[in-house]
Amino acid sequence: MTGGKHDLQKARPAINEEMPEMMKTMNSATAVGETRLREAISRLQGADTWVFDLDDTLYSSETKFFSQIDRRIGAFISNLMGLDPIEARKIQKSYFSRYGTTLKGLMDLHDVQPDDFLNYVHDVDLSQLTRDEALVSALKGLDGRKYVFTNSPLEYARQVLERLGIAEFMDGIFDVAASNYIPKPRQPAYDRLVSAFNLQPAKTVYVEDMARNLIPAAKMGMITVWLCTGEKWGAHEHDPEHVDFEIVDLPQWLAGVAEGRA
Ligand SMILES: [Mg+2]
């Protein structure tokens, strides 16, 4: 996947000296200005639940770990349809864009069994992921229930959390099977998440690297945090109206939030 750099600077107003200390510790702000930022911080302070995306959010996209899975998705399509890698890649991107996940397109158009696909594409080397002390420490200091909301399968998600050293902090994982293979950003996935964990959207913070996945959450009233990785696919369909906080370093930001509450 080729990465295009999103313009980070444009999306951030200057943090001025009159802002509360907590705002200054944050490495971000949204484009719509100080008033909205203050409101968002106030809502953040009242939040009692955290929902995190998994891939490229709880581990850094700089690991390029997900590219292993991305390549295996291409190989799966190539094998299934007898296509060369370039044609397979076009199909992969087109389904991803239209259906939310490549899997959903394969299920709807090609009768692919989800487990066949998920087992194949997640058969990757996890050794690249290692314990993230900064994230461990940040999650330890963060109040509230914590969940993972992912388009990936459960067992893979569990293994990733174990590798990162953060499994113990999570109260539950909502995977793609739990949403009956209807992926983010489709609305039923969010409705099922809310009902599965009995969430109050207005008190729920949702953190994601893919901006488009924040839109349904924002419309439901969740507090949305876009982890901007600088990758083109993360910024796809980015809409500042549906982003309360834009951040570049998750552990650092979470640590700032925890301190601001204390
Ligand atoms: Mg992600």
Describe what you observe in this structure.
The protein has 262 residues and is of the alpha/beta class. The chain folds into 2 domains: 12-63 and 130-261, Rossmann fold, CATH 3.40.50.1000; 66-121, Orthogonal Bundle (DNA polymerase, domain 1), CATH 1.10.150. It is 45% helix and 10% strand. The protein has helices spanning 21-25, 34-45, 66-81, 85-99, 102-110, 114-121, 133-140, 154-164, 187-197, 214-219, 232-235, 250-261; strands spanning 49-52, 145-149, 172-174, 204-208, 223-227, 245-247. It has a 6-stranded parallel sheet, sandwiched between helices. Helix 10 links the parallel strand 4 and strand 5 (223-227). The longest helix is centred in the first third of the chain and has 16 residues, at 66-81. The structure holds magnesium ion (MG). The site of magnesium ion has 6 residues, from loops.
Strand content bin: 5-15%
| N-to-C CA distance | 41 Å
Radius of gyration: 18 Å
Task: Tell me the major beta sheet.
Answer: 6 strands, parallel
The CATH architecture of the largest domain: 3-Layer(aba) Sandwich
Can you list the strand order of the major beta sheet?
3-2-1-4-5-6
- CATH topology tier name of the largest domain: Rossmann fold
